[in-house]
Amino acid sequence: MQHKAILLVMGMGALGSSFILEAEQRPMGFFVTSVSMGDGANLGGLAGADAHCQKLATAAGAGNREWRAYLSTEEDGKRGISARERIGNGPWYNAHGILIGANPTDLHLYNKTITLETALDENGNRIKGRYDKPNQHDILTGSQEDGTAYFPDEADHTCKNWTSNGEGSAQVGHHDRHGGGNSSWNSAHATRGCGKDDLPKTGGNGYLYCFAAD
User: Fold this and answer.
1) Which residue stretches of 25-66 are H helix?
2) 106-127 pLDDT, tens per residue?
3) Peptide bond into 134 cis (omega under 30)
4) Per-residue DSSP letters for 182-197?
5) Contact criterion met (CB below 8 Å) for 55 and 210
6) Burial class (CB in 10 A: 0-12, 13-18, 19+), 115
7) How many CA within 13 A on the CB side of residue 77?
8) Distance between CA 47 and CA 36 in Å, rounded?
9) What is the pLDDT of residues 144-167, one digit of tens each?
10) Could you tell me which residues come within 8 angstroms of residue 155 by beta carbon, excluding any fewer than 6 positions away?
11) Tens digits of per-residue pLDDT, 89-109?
């Protein structure tokens, strides 16, 4: 009996080690920001948004990775920077170790894994969706469904490249894939302005998707 007990303890120890190893092989590489930057869609440009992602990741114990905000930009006369080109090659896991996307193609073309239950914040908590109060499912992206920037047109898709807290508009996705007849996680509709009071009008709170680009 004594020998069996020792073997059982040893077996449990080995099993625990395998769980730890598996967790270490699936470090967090994706989250939705738990808080906004507080100034509507004025994020201080891409640099300010990236710094926000890095700050939140660091506070959650994942600051050893290079974090980027999933945002596109616009330029006069040509296409701007595309969000999909800023976030590395994957794979990306959420705070609970669930695979969000194996690579950029999987993330954009085949993705069915970003949902209310998996699009968690940096601490592994759920973000409020369409059926919560308040609804906060609008995530700023400025992107088309394939993750690319918009071609030059008359519309503002990025709140003046993430520097406006007043005039303009930005494209958002729905992290819960509900509402407005559009289930896109990254390109559902435009906001009704760029200010702090404008974003909640369609169900937003200035949240971002953050990805580890390394």
Assistant:
1) 45-59
2) 999 988 999 999 999 999 999 9
3) yes
4) ---SS-SEE-S-SSTT
5) no
6) middle
7) 0
8) 15
9) 999 999 999 999 999 999 999 999
10) 169, 190
11) 999 999 999 999 999 999 999
